[in-house]
Amino acid sequence: AGQDRELLIMDLRPRASAYANKVGGGGFESYSGCRLLFGGIDAASVVRDAWRLMGQAVSNLCSGEVGSWFRDVANSGWYDQIA
Description:
Number of helices: 4
Low-confidence stretches: none
Shape: elongated
Oligomer: single chain
Strand content: 5-15%
Mean pLDDT: 85
Number of strands: 2
């Protein structure tokens, strides 16, 4: 208690993309007392969609649709993102 701590800010984009965006008028947040880390993910929307589809595969399994599990997991693309 009472110690100064840095707030961690995660930007999922690659660092180069963030800086290129900054040159074009966009960019990223930067605050004193904060540490900014870049995740190196080129297309966060692709990761988000794969996560959503993997969640649907799990939901299907939980609702008894066992026969579609392998197909649903393969079609989610989730393993492509974490490999």
